[in-house]
């Protein structure tokens, strides 16, 4: 893999390792402590089926190099969408000006990092013929229309990314990675009289498109996703107004892990904590969640959407325990924040592209399983909400307030799931809600691979997960 | 190089790409290309934090082979990459289905006049000047109140860009634009409660930005005002959206009346053309030719001429927003809304914010909205909120960790007043909005 990526990103542009060392040396003419070069080339395609026809297809290419120079807490950054020696040196000369002239350090000779690949390096765009991608979309559409002939609108989309990256840094880091990523989504619109409701489902990961045809419980995966979309639309068609106020909430397993991502994940990113801006700042070793709650961020999981073999700074990803049995253990770090806080990087340095600066980001963030059967958890509640499916969320890491919106939810009455209720926003305070987790299910699962996380205007793919959870008190923003 | 020359150069590239598409078998093609150069600098606790030099460009092309469409784009503007991009787009058109509604915009709708909208006011991109502004904003904020204990930083951005659009009907037009902004985010603490808030200023002309000291003071003031926030009991209360967040309400209206939502039957405002959706006094004007406007443009992203429109007249849904495709799906003509809206001016009932608070009497003034809990298909609305509790028109204490919920249909109809003090920092210019009662969930 290393040689292929090196050829595509360097040799084809007239560069070699000595030109990278020379470029890094240019940055060290100024008094910088660290610098890195990030070469990236990516291809992205998407296909959309709507009204039963293949309506649009698109293909995008991106290629460039980003140059970062760090001096203490200061960062200089420049990039070029043209990879060649002159453009690279220009970017280096711009970025290095963050520090005054008079370099004190030497560039270490570049040495290939050793790490394990967490996914295959096939190009998903090429691994399946275009005609077969079209057939897959049509198969999803046909399945939905056969299952529910009265359905009004069906939109199915398929997208794939093939990305190669190479990082070289003044600390001698040299790493490459090939990152495939695919995704399938389907969305249906159901109409009954005046009422219209949508349902959607999706999945993905660092696979080839064949993943969507793979067997799930005796049938192709895409059929299961199509059924889920139909199920959500049918449920919402019957939904009544959601209650409003503070009540016990049972969150389903898998995707509702959005809770963790918002309630604790962002607040445990190293940059916010170095700056003392997070509600979790300075709290390592303290109880920040109920007993039994263990949360990890794990970039090493095979083929997952949030996984990386190495992060965007060339650090191999890890299984990082963030919270263990309710006690805060550590933050997620990139190189800069790790150095400034005097800890080791954790493989969480990520960036959207060569044109963006890296920062500490999540990979796959999830809570470990507990001892309760999900039914047992629901049976403990007289009046509350069961929410097995969510849309996105948002957090204010300073106050700890976070929201996430249910996409499928039900009332719990006298220990039983009863009427479906309309989507509502749930709001809470991260550290408080984590202390109110009173029961943890034995059914831990990760989401199906559709998560996108935004921070400072940069989007990266992530995974979330959790077992079924009972939160004793959460504010539910319904209208009833 | 002079900006006119640079634009002419890009127009040349667009021409080449269109010709390439035709020679590869396309019957129609359209391309757009942009280039932006800028700096983005930030300070934290009075010292430089980041200095970024931005240089972005990209080309997107759509080709039509008969009624089959293919699209491709590239951020790599080398000759090889451009050729590959065109080839890919033509390739894709081989696999997409025949679609009678696809194709370029109708020729008679294409813009032919390109007045200077005064969007380009270049200054030298000097990181040092930007750093000074950021540091000054932060300093003013840190000095404002002793409860300001920390800073999330201040940042200054300056961007000079250009955009060119061309298609095989013959249009190949472009214009330059500039954009400057300064923002500051502070952290305050009191009795174990930590809060943050921010302020910003944006303009196409650098000298029209608010002063750094003012931005800093506003950020600090907003942060301190949040300290000691309480929840509210669950109940029904009148809600007023401060002008900082009120434009989001009209953003939801934009989604609901967009052609794409209509032909997909995914809007709660389907089949409502000409009907009452807002109170009778409410008008919304669209002004694409506003000089120096943040959303001004004489043509949309398909080359269709924009025009002044009264989007809402006397509270009636006067116009849906169409692109070429959605218009054909619905058997009407595009009205120039590919790529979004062009400066909306929301009508006002003339009161100051203070007068509106009096009019509300007792209720919730919302200054922050969180999350995406808005369903355009049904109009169901449920979002996280923070702000202030108001009694007899006077702010009593800050509020956090509540939700406001209702249905957009009712929220639009129940708008009781829109303030005269306008938010001017985006594509929607509106004053604060006093909505009738909404369901507030708290403790």
Automatic annotation (TrEMBL), chain A:
InterPro entries in UniProt:
Metalloprtase-TldD/E_C, Metalloprtase-TldD/E_cen_dom, Metalloprtase-TldD/E_N, Peptidase_U62_metallo, TldD, TldD/PmbA_N, TldD/PmbA_sf
Molecular function terms from GO: metallopeptidase activity
In its UniProt entry, the species of origin is given as Alteromonas confluentis
Record GO biological process:
proteolysis
Entry similarity comment: Belongs to the peptidase U62 family.
Listed A to Z, the keywords are: Hydrolase, Metalloprotease, Protease
SUPFAM superfamilies the UniProt entry points to: Putative modulator of DNA gyrase, PmbA/TldD
Protein name per its UniProtKB record: Metalloprotease TldD
Query: Which cellular components does GO assign to this protein?
Result: cytosol
* Domain Metalloprotease TldD/E N-terminal per the UniProt entry, residue ranges: 35-99
Please state every residue range assigned to the domain named Metalloprotease TldD/E C-terminal: 245-478
Automatic annotation (TrEMBL), chain B:
Database matches in Gene3D superfamilies: PmbA/TldD superfamily
Give one Pfam hit by family name. Answer: PmbA_TldD_2nd
Metalloprotease TldD/E central domain location:
120-227
Record keyword Zinc-finger present: no
Q: Which residues form the Metalloprotease TldD/E N-terminal domain?
A: 29-93
Gene Ontology biological process terms in this record: proteolysis
Q: What UniProt keywords apply to this chain's record, in alphabetical order?
A: Hydrolase, Metalloprotease, Protease
Any one Gene Ontology MF annotation carried by this entry is: metallopeptidase activity
> Keyword Protease: yes or no?
yes
What's a single GO CC term here?
cytosol
What residues does the Metalloprotease TldD/E C-terminal domain cover? 234-442
Alphabetical list of NCBIfam families matching this protein: PRK11040.1 (NF008268)
Concerning its family, UniProt says: Belongs to the peptidase U62 family.
Q: This protein is called what?
A: Metalloprotease PmbA
Species in which this protein is naturally found: Alteromonas confluentis
């Amino acid at each position: 893999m290393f040689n292929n990526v090196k050829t595509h990103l360097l040799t084809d542009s007239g560069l070699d390792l000595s030109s990278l060392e020379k470029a890094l040396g240019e940055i060290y003419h100024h008094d910088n402590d660290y610098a890195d070069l990030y070469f990236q080339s990516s291809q992205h395609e998407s296909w959309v089926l709507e009204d039963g026809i293949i309506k649009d297809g698109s293909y995008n290419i991106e290629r460039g190099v980003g140059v970062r120079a760090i001096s203490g807490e200061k960062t200089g950054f420049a990039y070029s969408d043209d990879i060649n020696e002159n453009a690279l040196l220009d970017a280096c000369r711009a970025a290095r000006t963050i520090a005054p002239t008079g370099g004190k350090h030497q560039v270490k000779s570049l040495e290939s990092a050793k790490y394990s690949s967490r996914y295959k390096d096939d190009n998903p765009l090429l691994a399946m013929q275009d005609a077969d991608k079209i057939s897959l979309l049509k198969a999803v559409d046909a399945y939905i229309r056969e299952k529910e002939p009265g359905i009004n609108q069906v939109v199915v989309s398929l997208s794939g990314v093939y990305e190669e990256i190479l990082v070289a840094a003044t600390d001698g880091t040299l790493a490459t990675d090939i990152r495939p990523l695919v995704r399938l989504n389907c969305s249906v619109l159901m109409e009954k009289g005046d009422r219209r409701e949508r349902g959607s489902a999706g999945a993905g990961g660092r696979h080839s498109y064949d993943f969507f045809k793979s067997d799930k419980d005796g049938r192709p995966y895409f059929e299961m996703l199509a059924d889920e979309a139909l199920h959500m639309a049918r449920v919402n068609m019957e939904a009544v107004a959601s209650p409003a106020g503070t009540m016990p909430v049972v969150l389903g397993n898998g995707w509702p892990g959005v809770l963790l991502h918002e309630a604790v994940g962002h607040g445990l990113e190293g940059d916010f904590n170095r700056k003392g801006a997070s509600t979790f700042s300075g709290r390592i070793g303290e109880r920040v969640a109920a007993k039994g709650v263990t949360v990890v961020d794990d970039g090493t999981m095979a083929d997952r959407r949030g996984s990386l073999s190495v992060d965007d700074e060339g650090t191999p990803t890890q299984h990082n325990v963030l919270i263990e049995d309710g006690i805060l253990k550590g933050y997620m770090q990139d190189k800069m924040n790790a150095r400034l806080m005097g800890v080791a990087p954790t493989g969480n340095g990520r960036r959207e592209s060569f044109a963006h600066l890296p920062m500490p980001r999540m990979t796959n963030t999830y809570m470990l399983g507990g001892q309760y059967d999900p039914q047992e958890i629901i049976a403990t509640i007289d009046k509350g909400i069961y929410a097995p499916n969510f849309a996105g969320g948002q957090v204010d890491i300073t106050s700890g307030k976070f929201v996430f919106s249910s996409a499928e939810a039900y009332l719990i009455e006298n220990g039983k799931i009863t009427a479906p209720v309309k989507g509502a926003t749930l709001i809470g305070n991260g550290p408080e809600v984590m202390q109110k987790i009173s029961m943890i299910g034995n059914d831990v699962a990760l989401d199906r691979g559709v998560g996108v996380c935004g921070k400072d205007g940069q989007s990266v793919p992530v995974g979330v997960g959790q077992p079924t959870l009972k939160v004793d008190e959460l504010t539910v923003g319904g209208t009833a | 190089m002079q900006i006119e020359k640079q634009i002419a150069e890009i127009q040349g590239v667009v021409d080449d790409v269109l010709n390439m598409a035709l020679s590869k078998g396309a019957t129609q093609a359209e391309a757009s290309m942009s280039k932006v150069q800028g700096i983005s600098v930030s300070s934290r606790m009075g010292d430089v934090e980041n200095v970024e030099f931005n240089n972005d460009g990209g080309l997107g092309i759509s080709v039509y082979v008969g009624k089959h469409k293919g699209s491709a784009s590239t951020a790599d503007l080398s000759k090889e990459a451009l050729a590959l991009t065109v080839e890919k787009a033509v390739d894709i058109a081989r696999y997409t289905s025949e679609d009678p509604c696809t194709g370029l915009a109708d020729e008679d709708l294409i813009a032919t006049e390109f007045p200077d909208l005064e969007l380009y006011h270049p200054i030298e991109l000097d990181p040092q000047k930007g750093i000074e502004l950021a540091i000054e904003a932060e300093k003013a904020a840190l000095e404002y109140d002793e409860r300001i204990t920390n800073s999330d930083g201040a940042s200054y951005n300056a961007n000079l860009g250009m955009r060119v659009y061309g298609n095989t009907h013959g249009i190949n037009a472009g214009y330059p634009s500039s954009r400057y902004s300064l923002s500051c985010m502070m952290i305050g603490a009191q009795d174990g409660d930590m809060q943050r808030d921010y302020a910003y200023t944006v303009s196409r002309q650098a000298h029209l930005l608010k002063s750094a000291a003012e931005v800093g003071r506003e950020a600090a003031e907003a942060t301190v005002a949040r300290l000691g926030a309480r929840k509210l009991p669950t109940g029904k209360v009148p809600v007023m959206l401060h002008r900082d967040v009120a434009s989001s309400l009209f953003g939801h209206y934009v989604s609901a009346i967009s052609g794409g939502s209509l032909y997909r039957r995914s809007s709660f405002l389907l089949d409502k053309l000409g009907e009452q959706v807002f109170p009778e006094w409410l008008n919304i004007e669209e002004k694409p030719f506003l000089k120096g406007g943040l959303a001004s443009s004489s043509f949309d992203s398909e080359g269709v001429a924009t025009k002044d429109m009264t989007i809402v007249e006397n509270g009636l849904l006067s116009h849906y927003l169409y692109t070429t495709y959605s218009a054909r799906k619905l058997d009407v003509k595009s009205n120039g809304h590919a790529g979004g809206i062009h400066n909306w001016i929301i009508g006002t009932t003339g009161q100051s914010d203070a007068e509106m608070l009096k009019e509300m009497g007792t209720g919730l003034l919302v200054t922050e909205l969180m999350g995406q809990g808005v369903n355009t298909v049904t109009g169901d609305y449920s979002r996280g909120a923070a702000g202030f509790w108001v009694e007899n028109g006077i702010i009593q204490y800050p509020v956090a960790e509540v939700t406001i919920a209702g249905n957009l249909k009712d929220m639009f109809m129940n708008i009781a007043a829109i303030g005269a003090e306008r938010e001017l920092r985006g594509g929607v210019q509106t004053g604060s909005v006093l909505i009738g009662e909404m369901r507030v969930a708290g403790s």
